[in-house]
Amino acid sequence: DDRPVRADTIWKPFIAAIHGYALGGGCELAMTCDIRIAAENAQFGQPEINIGFMPGMGGTIRMPRFVPRAVASEILLTGNRLNAQDALRWGLVSRVVPREKLMDTAKEIANTIITRGPLGVRAVKEAIIRGYDMTLDEGLLMEQMMAGKIRTTEDFIEGARAFMQRRPPEYKGK
Q: 28 an active-site residue?
């Protein structure tokens, strides 16, 4: 397979902590991440059209998957920017926080994720990515198959046992 390795083909979560300008390739890189947190000063856009060019690293493909098509079209065809609040309103980011809390917020999310079962985390990310282009029936079947495999793992048994015993689980990735 000669396709490049991308964040959306690696089954570990990627978190983007964005401040300042995420324009062109920076915006495209941010869109490859699973969770995007923006500082209040962040700006997003694809200004390539301003010089008679176009995004070449996924901007025209990813942007309409994250924001409504009309909004994506306006951003891509005009080169206009979104501020952090508009990026939140349209779904390009999941949170906007003060600049001084940006990294702490990203780390807090990461620390939460690492306390979850690694096999479940991997499966959730894979299901989100693979299921995006599937029909509902195909996606549900894939999800059932993946859940069935996880249900037989040591991590699932440990997670259920820890829940019943009201203690933190000790996952081993098995």
A: yes
Query: Which member of 28, 100, 126, 158 is catalytic?
Result: 28
43 near 75, Cβ under 8 Å?
no
Whole-model pTM over 0.85: yes
User: Strands 35-39, 95-97: parallel, antiparallel or unpaired by DSSP?
Assistant: parallel
Cα-Cα-Cα-Cα dihedral of 105, 111, 112, 116, to 10°?
A: 160
108 catalytic, yes or no?
A: no
pLDDT at 92 over 90: yes
3-state secondary structure of 161: helix
Determine the Cα–Cα distance for residues 96 and 101; give it in Å rounded to an integer. 10
Give the model's pLDDT for residue 94. Answer: 97
For residue 84, which amino acid is it? A
Active-site residue, from 48, 100, 126, 154: 48
Percent of the chain with pLDDT over 90: 91
Residue with tokens 């999800």: 143
Cβ within 8 Å of residue 12, ≥6 positions away:
121, 122, 125
Q: Is the pLDDT of residue 118 over 80?
A: yes
Structure tokens, 20? 């300042």
User: Taking residues 60-69, what's their average pLDDT?
Assistant: 94
| Neighbouring residues of 165: CB distance < 8 A, sequence distance ≥ 6 | none
